[in-house]
Design brief:
The chain contains 4 helices and no strands. The protein is mainly alpha-helical and about 90 residues long. The longest helix has 20 residues. The radius of gyration is 21 Å and the shape is extended.
């Protein structure tokens, strides 16, 4: 027997169809508490999947390091953009 459909509010982002996306986004909690809760859940998922494992490797730590490198490059891009065309002589 088929399971009853999941309400749109309880669907994950990957399960939402493109036409339902605006309605799904309108049902999200964008208060500071809701955003903090979403960040906390994301951190907990990352920690339990990559860091808190029996046989850990460098995968989780290397992703954090790669993310740090990308974010620091984005933050300093405007400064690097101006230095790109300068001649040092």
């Amino acid at each position: 027997m088929a399971q009853p459909p999941v309400p749109l509010k309880d669907m994950k982002l990957m399960d939402v169809k493109l036409g339902q996306l605006p309605t799904w986004l309108a049902m999200r909690d964008f208060t500071p508490g809701g955003i903090a809760g979403a960040l906390r859940r994301g951190y907990d998922r990352y920690y339990n999947k990559y860091i808190n494992v029996k046989k850990g490797g460098l995968g989780g730590i290397s992703m954090v390091l790669a993310g740090y490198v990308v974010v620091s490059y984005i933050w300093s891009y405007s400064h690097l953009k101006h230095d790109r065309h300068r001649k040092y002589h």
